Amino acid sequence: MGNIGFIDTGTIGQITTVSSVTSTIGAAVVFPTTSTLGAAVTIPTSSTIIAKLGEAAYTSTAIYYQYVASTALATIWTPAAGKRFNITDLMISTSTSSDITLIDNTNTISIFYFDNRGGLVSNLRSPYVSSSITASLRVATTTSTVSIFVNGFEA
User: Where does residue 151 rank: exposed (0-12), middle (13-18), buried (19+ CB within 10 A)?
Assistant: First the structure.
């Protein structure tokens, strides 16, 4: 969908500051420079993607989420009324060993098992589409500082 650039200003292996994302249509997206741990940060986007899902063009959504303790269940993406979340790209990093579960409302999408300073970057060939219009993307983790970046769209 676009090019993603990161600047690592902390310990190697941990993304602490993300500077910008440049889409293929040339619009820059500025990430927040600070966030409260445990709070979702929605990265502002304004680029309408040229590709179409069915008949309607869609707008890219990028969400960055970080927290520092085990979390039984946290909501990281709730789409607008009447829409489903569609995941196209996913990045996860952890500071210590951790099991991270991505959940589509109440259904487990996948469980990821990370060792110390583990990470994942996934560009989905076909978007993951939420199970229902009312579904939220949620996450649960066993331990550690976890950073999650989700890119996708609502349709």
Answer: buried
Average confidence (pLDDT) over 126-152: 90
Angle at the Cα of 108 (from 53 to 89), degrees rounded to 5? Answer: 40
In a domain, 140, yes or no: yes
Average pLDDT, the chain: 73
Report pLDDT digits (tens) over 79-127: 999 999 999 999 999 988 889 999 999 999 999 999 988 999 999 989 9
| CB contact at 8 A, 100 and 92 | yes
* Total tally of structural domains belonging to the chain: 1
- Please state, in angstroms and rounded to a whole number, the distance separating the CA atoms of residues 142 and 125: 29
Are 75 and 136 spatial neighbours (Cβ–Cβ below 8 Å)?
yes
Check if the beta carbon of residue 151 is closer than 8 Å to that of residue 43: no
Domain containing residue 58: CATH number: 2.60.120
Q: Read off the DSSP letter of residue 114.
A: E
